[in-house]
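Section handout 9: paired folding examples.
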Amino acid sequence: MNVVAQLGRRSPQGAFEMLLEAGPETQIILIVSALFSLISWLIIFWKLGQFRRLKRQAAAFLRTIEGTERLEDVYNSLHRLPDSPYTRLFRHGVLFFTELRPGAFRDNPSVSVGLSEAQLQALRLVLEKVQGEEQDDLAAGLVWLAIIGTVAPLLGLLGTVVGVMDAFLGITAAGTANIGAVAPGIAEALIATVAGLVAAIPAAIAYNYFMSRLNFFGGELEGFTSEFIGTLAREGRI
């Protein structure tokens, strides 16, 4: 709302009243910023639940493998655990290995020729593929946090620039630069920046936090892949 219109009415008495009396451009930007904020908080709570559940699954999986001595014992124990990235990775590794060496997990497996270099590399590639798929699934939604954290401040800045332009155009039309006439328009313009920052700050913080958790999760799966292959070697299966 420009200064000419503001000269004929009293100044807003608070931020809420200022929001109600804001110009259409500012209101549109405030609505979009509020939508961004709502989306980001929904994603934040969703991902918090996912990572907390993943932490419980990791603890249960570690307790299971710590109480076993052989890979076939671990495989049999997985039936008591809920489906998780850890159990899926282990099952894919065991199933692919048994395709390469049928009968390798019998109670008394016969001594057989170990895996060739190409077969061992294929096993690693299968495990890495499963690892990548699990990370991609867990990363779902994080891109929107990055987008909101980047776009929301720019959207707020756009609203402020437009509001300041309207204020200066109003000054020119009214032929006065009285601070009482200019201040409400400037304050209204700055609300857009505040709204953009309110939406962007939680999204940016959450994105960086979840990315650190995702990288930690990827490191866990990568370490488990190496440990899986090392256990096969230790038990004389490759």
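Moving on to protein 2 of 2.
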Amino acid sequence: MGIPLDGVQDALVRLDEEGVIALYPETGALWLAHPFSAADEPFKVRTDEGTWDAVCVWDGLGVLAVLGSDGDVATKCPDCDESLELSVRSNAIAPSDYVVHFGVPARRWYEDIAHT
């Protein structure tokens, strides 16, 4: 595209500041292109087409929505380490006994994306 590397980095920083993507604070490398993560994360999204990582259940469901695909979002309970999985079929979450807890109100999610 003919853009110097420092111009690309400046553009990435602007996108990070605007909440479009998230960069690793230590390195400036790409971490999140919401709802997708470039890193190994605790939420695994599986479809017939592949597997993706997400930082939370909300983003995991968002991956399926962006892909327009049926699939599963799997993780482990942070308290007891029990495997947990949500299945999405035909744009609906399959019935389960799970409760999702968001420790931070949605309006504050982007204040510290690593924490939320």
